[in-house]
Design brief:
Blueprint (H helix, E strand, L loop, with lengths): L3 H11 L5 H19 L9 H17 L6 H5 L24 H4 L2 H10 L3 H4 L6 H18 L13
Helix pairs in contact: 1-3, 3-6, 3-8
Length: 159
């Protein structure tokens, strides 16, 4: 298990389903595991959708900061042509895509989620990835508890 889990976590950030059927299938697997481990359906586990979202945002952060494994993606990130009053200065331009594969790809979905983050999370960049992950989890759990519609992990769901 210690050898398999890091590989699965790494792959989960890029393979993040956007179709409702795929998301429901993964949630069923987590429910079965929770029932097996805790003998109850709803343990205090973080949802798979929010874990995948944090993982995707951390992977994009590594690309943005120029980490070697993510360098190819980081080199293609560009600043937007304009910033509105509500945008933060670290906004990234989304890529225009015509197909669902492109629209809902790892990079485009994550750029959209990153641009919606509050400026407080991004203003002290660069920092260690572990610090960024901790700050990100705090913001996401706070937003889910306080305002379920904001930063909802399953916002970009396609049937």
């Amino acid at each position: 298990m210690p050898l398999v889990r890091p590989i699965l976590k790494y792959g989960a950030s890029c393979w993040d389903p956007y179709r409702e059927g795929q998301i429901n299938a993964l949630d069923r697997v987590q429910k079965k595991a929770a029932k097996f481990v805790h003998h109850k359906i709803r343990p205090n586990w973080e949802s798979l959708a929010s874990r995948r979202k944090v993982s995707r945002l951390c992977a994009l952060y590594k690309a943005y900061c120029g980490e070697r494994a993510w360098k190819d993606i980081g080199d293609s990130l560009k600043r937007p042509h304009y910033l509105s009053r509500v945008d933060h200065v670290r906004k990234i331009r989304t890529r225009r895509q015509r197909t669902d594969i492109g629209k809902y790809s790892f990079v485009n979905r994550t750029i959209g989620d990153r641009n919606q983050l509050p400026a407080e999370v991004l203003e002290t960049l660069p920092c260690k990835p572990s610090t960024f992950r901790k700050r990100l989890r705090e913001v996401i759990t706070e937003c889910i508890k306080g305002h379920p519609s904001e930063l909802n992990p399953s916002v970009s769901v396609v049937k």
